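Give me structure tokens for this 215-residue protein.
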Amino acid sequence: MKTKYDHVVWDFNGTVLCDMQVGIDCVNTMLAERGLPTLNSLEAYRAVFDFPVKDYYRRVGFDFEKEDYTTCLAPLWVSLYEKNEWRAPLFAGVEPLTAALRAHGVRQSILSASESHMMKKQLDARGALSWFDEIWGNDCIHAYGKEGLAAAWRAKHPDANAVVIGDTVHDFAVAKAMGADCILVAAGHHSYDKLASCGVPVVRDLFACAKLLLP
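Here you go.
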């Protein structure tokens, strides 16, 4: 029995890689060093996090008049993240779902605002690089967004019947930009209620997502 889609496009951070707490810890280190209030829970983080990441930094209190985002704050966060990302596991449902999709002949890409070389290293360290056919990432560390990547992906795959799996409202926008369906997973960087506003299927985890993808 055929699947509904022939290509699944995965977001990475918060969808494949469960790295929210690592990210919170890194930004809290930076906030505490500057005497700024820290984020005391995952819920508090989800309430303020969004793309572009530069706006999120501004919302939590960083002063770009004192420290430039591009040359100072973003590289500092990445340095802290790279020292601690080993603590971030893959979400439990990633391996069985990618395996089941492969078994049904579904191609799979990762499309992320993260820097592509970093993602490949993270996937390789977790034994997961071979699970995906293509890795689409930005060529810098500043996480501006994914719409440009989405357009490039669609240009390469003009006839693909695709669905995006992501964990943020931005992933919904990316799906629209590439003319794909979207399933949002409320286990990452945005809350269930925030995702539900997009009007597409929202699930609690990847095991529930499998029911929407597999025959």
